[in-house]
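ok new one. same drill as before - structure tokens go in, u give me an amino acid for every spot. 97 of them this time. try not to just spam alanines like last time pls lmao
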């Protein structure tokens, strides 16, 4: 059986902010159904956009249209581990990022 302090700690952990959503600028919580996205997949006019080494031919070859180098095995997963941003699930669905 959990005590009051255990429940309080669990509640704080569950609401820990994962980061700031690049689409809407609000905090992303674990309860927001986050989708992790690469800064290279943001729209070119977004301030957080980064250029990508991935070419159109690589995207077609791999059948994945992400510009993330990790998706195309170009950087041993470093981009995915270090650079990806949390995006609200609802913002991802709207596609406005």
């Amino acid at each position: 059986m959990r005590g009051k302090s255990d429940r309080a700690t669990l509640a704080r952990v569950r609401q820990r902010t994962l980061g700031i959503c690049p689409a809407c600028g609000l905090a992303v919580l674990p309860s927001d159904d986050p989708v992790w996205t690469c800064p290279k997949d943001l729209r070119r006019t977004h301030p957080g956009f980064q250029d990508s080494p991935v070419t159109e031919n690589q995207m077609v070859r791999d059948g994945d249209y992400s510009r993330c180098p990790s998706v195309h095995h170009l950087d041993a997963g470093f981009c995915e581990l270090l650079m990806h941003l949390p995006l609200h699930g609802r913002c991802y669905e709207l596609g406005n990022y």
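The CA atoms of residues 77 and 94 lie 27 Å apart. and btw The radius of gyration is 17 Å.
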